[in-house]
Amino acid sequence: MNPIPYGRHHITEEDIQAVVEVLKSNNLTQGPKIAEFEAAFADYIGCKYAVAVSHGTAALHLCAIALNVEPGQKVITTPVTFAATANCVRYCGGEVVFADIGPNTYLLDINKVRELLEASPKGIYKGIIPVDFAGRAVDLETFRKLADEYGCWIIEDACHAPGGYFTDSKGTRHNCGNGDFADLAIFSFHPVKHIACGEGGMITTNNEQLYHKLRNLRTHGIQQIPELRQFNHGIWYYEMQELGYNYRLTDIQAALGISQLKRAHEGLKKRKHIARVYQKAFEGKQFIKGQSAVVEEHAYHLYVIEVEDRKGLIGYLREQNIWSQVHYIPVHLMPYYRQFGWKEGDMPNAEKYYKHCLSIPVFPTLTMEEQAFVIKTINEFYA
Question: Could you say which of 261, 287, 303 is where a domain stops?
Fold first, then answer.
């Protein structure tokens, strides 16, 4: 059997033709496909504005800049995420403060966040970055109330969760990244994500002012609206008004993203089906912890189990050509963040989770036979 990874992109003939059309066109970058992708993605998510950028890390960085993160300002986030979530604060000189996760959801624990906010004078903390980890949506309604109480902005890291959602206290569905509660949200188009562009990212928002600022920041700080420029020397004129970056997406990537987006619902449906099969297969197994029930709102970028003897299981799976992965090593225990005083014991729930967590294969093209083999192999190891 061919290797079975924890995640895999799916490229169709339609995807290839979409890219070929761009390669044959007059625009490889900064062409019409960017705006088309942005409009299609905003429609899919249900927000007013979308800004395509070169990758998810660029999206995070631009969000931090747009929200005026400055040296010394404190921002709260989760330790169970990829390092980029925290790093965007450091890029701007801000201070990252970690709060622990809920042991059952793996999401940033709002009670721990409240404890941090209550322990300091208002104004010390400037923002909160919750993560829709593995595809499970954060309840942003409750986070918004807390953020407003303490004067904080919210960046929703929704890289794992296009198509995920939560239901608010009034019974209204809110798609991840729809901008109803977060000031800004970010997505990634890395190959193992729901929508694969090779690399790429998107920022979504309902704030028009932030939208225009982000568009300028991704293109060297050059003002995109002629009427807002200080001068106008002629039709050739462009004007850099602030320090920006070259964080643009290409038309090639945007074309691939548009094509992939057309079957996003189908891929999400398959991910949830795979999750249900795993849940049924592992129900009642003593060696499996966590993921006790399938959550309908979950986007299932990852299917995470918690097990004993994870190291042994990973090795056994690898022998059988099954490539599992660990998501994630808690960010506060990375050597870079340890230098700021973070240490083992600071985030007990996150650290306990890390000792046992394992992401097993979940992607739309995973076959029934492949999933059955993964289940059989895990059961054999613990037999």
Answer: 261
